[in-house]
Write a structure and sequence with these properties.
It comes from Sterrhoptilus dennistouni. By secondary structure, the chain is mainly beta. The protein is 12% helix and 42% strand. It has a single domain, classed as Nuclear Transport Factor 2, Chain: A (Roll).
């Protein structure tokens, strides 16, 4: 599979897609979602924003954190709109402590472990430094 060109909007928001593109049609038009690598830094950052949104709306005592990004798409629409399928798991960090999620480990106690499958839509506009999360469904 040939690489598509690297698209950079700012130094922080570069999108690489490794999807196959038939010859003669290798331009990405705005508004057309494309698959993107789940290890992409922009994807990981978007997934974390989705997790923040989930944690803010849940009434769980503990914070959840992304454990695996299963699938990612990105769409160029007045910024970058990420469509993510993410598994999140309960951590040992309690919400009231507000620690950094990076330092939160997943629950080891069997009766406290929980995994949810989530679909997040995260719309990032780098030039205004705004993030909108119109969709955050977890079950």
């Amino acid at each position: 599979h040939p690489f598509m060109p690297l698209m950079c909007f700012t130094l922080m928001f570069c999108v690489v897609s490794v999807t196959y593109v038939p010859p003669h049609h290798s331009t990405i038009r705005p508004g057309f979602p494309v698959p993107v690598n789940t290890n992409n830094p922009g994807v990981r950052k978007a997934a974390r924003f989705g997790v923040y949104r989930y944690n803010n709306s849940s009434n769980d005592l503990f914070l959840f954190k992304e454990s695996q990004i299963k699938k990612a798409m990105v769409q160029i629409v007045r910024g970058l709109k990420y469509m993510l399928h993410v598994e999140i798991k309960r951590t040992v960090c309690e919400k009231r402590d507000h620690p950094s999620l990076d330092s939160c480990h997943f629950q080891r106690e069997k009766n406290l472990q929980q995994m949810l499958r989530c679909y997040f839509e995260v719309w990032i506009q780098p030039w205004t430094h705004t993030v909108h999360i119109p969709v955050a469904h977890c079950q």
